[in-house]
Amino acid sequence: MYMQDTTNLRPPAMVADIASAADTIGFTISSDTLTGSLLRTLAASKPSGMLLELGTGVGMGTAWLLDGMDAASKLITVDRNAETTAVAKRFFGHDTRVTFQFADGAAFIQSSREQGHSFDLIFADMIPGKFSLLDETLSLLKKGGLYIVDDLLPSSSWPQEHQEHQSNVDHLIASLESRPDLRITKLNWSVGLIIAAKV
Question: Where would I find the beta strands (DSSP E) of 80-178?
Answer without folding.
Answer: 98-102, 119-124, 141-149
